[in-house]
Amino acid sequence: EENDVNYNMDNAQIQTTYDNNEQYYKDMSWNQMSVTTEILPQAASGISKVNPSMGDVATKAREIVSDASKVEGTDYDAISVGYWQPDAGNLANGGGWASVNGLFSWMTYPHNLAVLRHEVGHNFGHPHHKKDVYEYRNSRPNLQESDGYDGFDMMSGGNGYDISHFAAASKWFFNWIPDSSIIHMQLEGATDNCPTCLSSGTFTLFSFDDKDVVPTPDKKMGIHIPISAAGNTLYSYWLSYRGAGVDGKAAHGLSVHVSWLSLGGTFGAIYDSLRYDAFG
């Protein structure tokens, strides 16, 4: 299809989607994170669209970027490929794929914001978050992965909402919500390992997904209850208040998740969670 004008891509459409994604991440981080993009000219990969693999496409993309004299870590941090929907394989149903806590994403063309922000979220260390269910159930007949989503954010089946930010725990890890805006609690109160931990109290939590409500020491945006650490993974309970996002469906009460941060990798950690009550 190299010379077929029907396969020409509209860079303006792609740029607009990436610009909207940049604004979304700025809103989500209170202007602390900017995901900027440079779009290279459309290039033929030489990879058949019959059943392309993500690995082959990633390898070819890195070759194309290198041929354009772009150096990773100097000129760019990550690569995202726009690709016409193939006949089979990962992108056969549209959408996108991305490495979790990694530097590559693969997007069906034409692009849309909901898919793009979700795939970038995978790069930032988020798999698909689930309800309080056992993963082995996904292997049962007729049960789809999406049956386990809790709809709480853009990484857990809530990607259809205009505002569907990362969870408070993830924002805290990236320091978009500073530690001074988090309440740390454990039964024994303050200890050497958690000198700021409280054992009890009455608190008001502010919405962690409202771009106009900036976290401050007077605006607490989450309650963190550490459970245990195993190797490089911290397990915790998180209580938070999602007031602005998911069309207000969570605005009438607390959301409760058990979460874990597995430290290491490109973006510092993989964050995952199961929900006990996602919508208050």
Outline of the structure:
By secondary structure, this protein is of the alpha/beta class.
Total strand segments: 9
Compressed to H and E, one letter per element, the order equals HHEEEHEHEEEEE
Gross geometry: elongated
Question: Helical residue percent?
Answer: 10-25%
Mean pLDDT over the residues: 90
* Termini Cα gap: 51 Å
Largest sheet: 6 strands, mixed
Radius of gyration: 20 Å
Class from secondary-structure proportions: alpha/beta
- Strand share of the residues? 15-25%
Order of strands, widest sheet: 4-9-8-7-6-5
Count of helix runs: 4
Low-confidence blocks of residues: none
How would you characterize this protein structure?
By secondary structure, this protein is α/β, with parallel strands linked by helices. The chain has helices spanning about 10-30, 55-65, 115-125, 170-175, and strands at about 80-85, 95-100, 105-110, 130, 180-185, 220-230, 235-240, 255-265, 270-275. The model has no long low-confidence stretch (mean pLDDT about 90). The longest helix has 18 residues, at about 10-30. The protein has four helices and nine strands, in the order H-H-E-E-E-H-E-H-E-E-E-E-E. The strands form two sheets. It has a six-stranded mixed β-sheet with strand order 4-9-8-7-6-5. It has a three-stranded mixed β-sheet with strand order 1-3-2, sandwiched between helices.
